Amino acid sequence: MQNRYSFEIGDLFYAIRRVHGLTQVEFADQLGVVQSTISKIEKGVFDDIPFSLISKLSTSFNIPLAHFQIGLLPLKKSFFYSKDISPEFIKDGVFSAKTVYLILTEIYNSYNPKIYKQLKMQPQYLCFSNLKYNFEFINKLYSLTQEDLFKAIAKIKVYGDQDMNLNNIKKFLQSSYGLNIAANTENHLAKFNFNSTFNELNNVYAKVLEVELKALFGSNVILEKSQENNTYHIHTS
Predict the structure, then answer these.
(1) C-alpha to C-alpha distances, 231 to 9, 94, 115, nearest whole angstrom
(2) What are phi and psi of 80, to 5 degrees?
(3) Residue 74 near residue 51 (C-beta atoms within 8 A)
(4) Where in the chain is CATH 1.10.260.40?
(5) What is the pLDDT of residues 101-156, one digit of tens each?
(6) How many CA atoms lie within 13 A of 150 on its CB side?
(7) DSSP classification of residue 181
(8) CATH class for the region spanning 3-81
(9) pTM attached to this predicted model
């Protein structure tokens, strides 16, 4: 059995902007619109996106129009596109779909174009949704890429939208991962422990979580394993 999932066009705009490390203002300038238009599209409150804007996005970022839902442009916010995805990768998921998209895009561009075939997923539609991907998905991705996963993660440049403070990070880690973090010290902002069940792959999970923290809170977030068993420190530079 496979689950169905949907994504809105705003998720597509958001992901493309993130992949290229652009602010909403910079993205709007490239597309010839105002920043508020991009904001409304990403929030899903833009009633009717003109074909001319989709065409400009397609041309400017070399993305085939087929990736913007074939034959159904201009797009309305009420329209969803559905694809199949194996439920084994999303059951009890915790990793953001947008974070997974950033990682897989870098792997696809730089290392292993066959990765999507091995995952039995379509690259164009993999992560444009509100899905959360689980540890099993990361396990599978790492088994297929090994060190290439870390190389790809190291190349990702993202910039966060939220304030970088302990309360925001604590809330995010608790709500998304069920991780409790300790207060800041002189040497790091905070520390947390992964569940010991995932001990062998904790370094892999930490690298993916680092991308997610960067995407939320800024490009200067670093996770570092400490001398203590399973403990990771969150640093800022």
Answers:
(1) 39, 19, 31
(2) -125, 150
(3) yes
(4) 3-81
(5) 888 878 877 666 678 778 877 665 565 556 788 889 999 999 999 888 999 888 88
(6) 8
(7) E
(8) mainly alpha
(9) 0.65
